[in-house]
Amino acid sequence: MALHDLERPYDPTSAEGRVARHWFERIPTAYWIVVFLLITMPVYASNFVLFQIFGWSFILGMIATSLMFLAGYGGMVSLAQMTFAGVAGYSVAIFGESAITTISQGWPFYVAVPLALIVTVLFATGIGWLAVRTEGIYTIMITLAIAAAFFYFTRQNYDIFNGFQGFNSVLPPPLFGVDWREAIPFYYLTLFFAAATYFAVLYLSRAPFGLALQGVRDNPRRMAALGFNVTGHRVAAYAFSAIPAGLGGILLTWQTSQISPGTISLQPVIDILVIAVVGGLSHPIGPFIGAFLYVVLKTFAVDVLIAVGLGGERFQLLIGLGFLIVVYVSSDGLIGIWRKIRESRNRDPFRTREGE
Amino acid sequence: MSGLANMTGTENALELRDVSKTFGALAALSGIELVVKPGERRAVLGSNGAGKTTLFNCITGDFPPSSGSIRFFGEDVTAFPPQERIRRGLRRTYQISLLFHGLTVLDNIYLACLGVSRGRFSFLRPRRDDALVAASERLVELVHLDAVKDSSVSDLSYGQQRQLEVAMALSGAPRFILFDEPAAGLSPAERRELIEILTNLPSHMGFIIIEHDMDVALRVSDYVTMMHNGEIFKEGRPAEIEEDPEVQALYLGGAEH
């Protein structure tokens, strides 16, 4: 150590300062409270809230996170994420068990589920390979076209997708003797995969692959000039995004015990975009917050409208208004609002620029 | 320059044969013949629109040439995409800032180091003793950006961004570097630092520098190529070029605008 190093004031954010603290000491208390609340949720929440509100939020959050990953880190707005989820859901119904025994192969879940994910990743790789040739609005258009094409294809094809009816009685396997469609097991099942998705995306954002993807977002031409294969990175991002989307699609199929063209029609396709944008695209927590808001609005808007004496059928209006307000006041969804509030609270009146 | 490179025969670092580039009816480059030996430091001078940056874009493959061939250390790279040329040890800096504004200084350099490494697609975060992270830290120090290494690039001053460009070009053991006006917009102190960095580069690292500042260009280069209207107009040692009456009339006259 050079002599001048000793004169340096102690800095807790330096590498030396960091070694002294364990990783769990660096996590703020608020995070521990959230973790505690989520784990103990079944103690004070009703089965309806666990299954319908949280279970659904976690699932939609996972699918929206796959979009957040592509759009936030890769700069590629894909409307095909719900389609990837649908491919996985259909695959599980086709390879596994359902009431449509003429089509469903009835293979055990440990074959059907991995196979469904593999099919989804391959499908997404193909779509990605097509979509990355375009930029901006054209990526949106091409993925929207793919989503629409897949919807009409499933509705008209009876040999594989059973047309308009789709598949019903697609149930989770009774693993460990647990009925995973019971409210409490389903809550923990979705919580587990939602948390896995959240942490995987967060981890990946600082790994070489994620950093390179952010480089591609900021400046694709420069990335090529640094030796990166920009097309390859973008296609790989699509392939990765198919995993959370596919898992979400399988869980969604199990939750509703069915999958049909309605699951992947343009309405849910757009809903995923709305959830991700309203939640915020800069951090993987955004899509989950957006999904929670969406599910709460979608579930209770009817009751609110009826309570104030309006027709219940106008609940979409309330949802639309809620999203309009969020998008209007913040450029980065609910995360953006949260950051603004925190910054204004932490602002030191004696300094012109506040540090974090 | 009597090292191993010369013993392998006529292998030049860079060899351009009859390279032309047209944009529609505009001939940005025509019939460029350019040979640079390994370890040579070449300055390319010329007024605005002479085709200097287009020349760089053809060499790196950002825009492939319309005709002609480009050999890099004996290998014909004319049809290679940019990343393949970069992986063979070619680097460049950009005249306009082409940095990753959403990322930190260290992340920018780390990406530059990563681009030519095998871990480009790795899903695992680098460990604290990762070789690329260490290499990035050394480059940050080399261009004196240690104090701002964790700042976002959008918070840097213009001069600091230029220095970051240079650091990114030096990442990952380059064999040959193209500097596109690295000194433009720098303060006199930053300019001195840049000259020091360029002159202290390892002797096997050749480069071509485009520079409007004659002082910088002639101080760091062994040989000078003058360009005019997309053609090579004159070549020679810095002293010869400086004395040449035609160059003085054209270049110094043109630079006064």
The strand line-up of the biggest sheet of chain A is 1-2
**Rg of chain A, nearest Å:** 22 Å
Unreliable spans of chain A:
1-6
N-to-C span of chain B = 39 Å
Q: What composes the largest sheet of chain A? A: 2 strands, antiparallel
Q: Strand share of the residues of chain B? A: 15-25%
**What is the average of the pLDDT values of chain B?**
81
Helices and strands of chain A, in order, run as HHHHHHHEHHHHEHHHH
Largest interface: A-B, 26 and 33 residues
N-to-C CA distance of chain A = 30 Å
- Helix count of chain B equals 10
Order of secondary-structure elements of chain B: HEEEHEEHEHHHEHEHEEHH
In terms of quaternary structure, what is this? Answer: heterodimer
Structure write-up:
The complex is a heterodimer of chains A (356) and B (257). By secondary structure, chain A is mainly α. In chain A, 68% of the residues lie in helices and 1% in strands. Chain A is built from 15 helices and two strands. Chain A has a two-stranded antiparallel sheet with strand order 1-2. In chain A, helix 4 runs antiparallel to helix 11, helix 4 packs across helix 13 and helix 12 packs across helix 13. Chain B is an alpha/beta fold and 257 residues long. Chain B contains ten helices and ten strands. In chain B, strands 6-7-8-3-9-10 form a six-stranded mixed sheet, sandwiched between helices. In chain B, strands 2-1-4-5 form a four-stranded antiparallel sheet, covered by helices on one side. Classes of the chains: A mainly alpha (356), B alpha/beta (257). Chains A and B meet through helix 9, helix 10 and helix 11 of A and helix 3 and helix 4 of B.
List the helices and strands and how they pair.
The complex is a heterodimer of chains A (356) and B (257).
Chain A: H1 3-6, H2 15-19, H3 29-44, H4 47-73, H5 81-95, H6 109-131, H7 137-156, E1 167-168, H8 183-204, H9 208-218, H10 220-225, H11 230-256, E2 258-259, H12 266-279, H13 285-307, H14 315-329, H15 333-346
Chain B: H1 4-7, E1 14-23, E2 26-36, E3 41-45, H2 52-60, E4 67-72, E5 75-76, H3 82-87, E6 90-92, H4 105-114, H5 131-142, H6 158-169, E7 176-180, H7 188-199, E8 206-210, H8 214-220, E9 223-228, E10 231-236, H9 238-243, H10 245-255
Parallel strand pairs in B: 3-8, 3-9, 6-7, 7-8
Antiparallel strand pairs in B: 1-2, 1-4, 4-5, 9-10
Helix pairs in contact in B: 4-5, 4-6
